[in-house]
Sequence to fold (193 residues):
Amino acid sequence: MSHPARSRCLWAKAPLDIVYHDHEWGVPVHDDRTLFEFLTLEGAQAGLSWSTILKKRAHYRQVFDDFEIAKVAAYDQAKVDSLLADAGIVRNRLKVASTIGNARIALEIQAQYGSLNQYLWEFVGGEPVHNAWSDVSQVPAKTLVSDQMSKTLIKRGFKFVGSTICYAFMQATGMVNDHTIDCFRHAEISARA
Fold:
């Protein structure tokens, strides 16, 4: 249930955006599957709007086996062909290939670090960064931390993980709280810390 009478971040306008904003955006995520889902969807968003991705999200979950990392890592050419023929997702050959390749690297990270969660959250020292922006114009598109995350992930072989994508991922998964201070969610998420 969303909160229509409350003040919220200016980008949350469409009904699906509002539900996402009110219940997910900025909430710390520590589940490997969900982290992989957001990494995939943020990469799929490149060149598109987040609203477009949210509309396709349920279908993405269906055709990408609910983003189970090991299952996605095992996809073969027949699966790739079926994904590229599916109008319910972003049918970009490079983005589909990157999802599979990124899943294979995520498996390596899980083996090396114990979890994708452990690895990714180290970029913020294991704790969310709580910003206090008074206006949406102050919210950055990328930061030094997202620059570092991007460089490190690219070095490992990840694709579609530029700094702007990494920062959007950090915002989505609660590594940073970028709700503006007039938004009711800013205080709610800060209180969870």
Summary: Residues 102 and 158 are 5 Å apart (CA to CA). The chain has a mean pLDDT of 95.
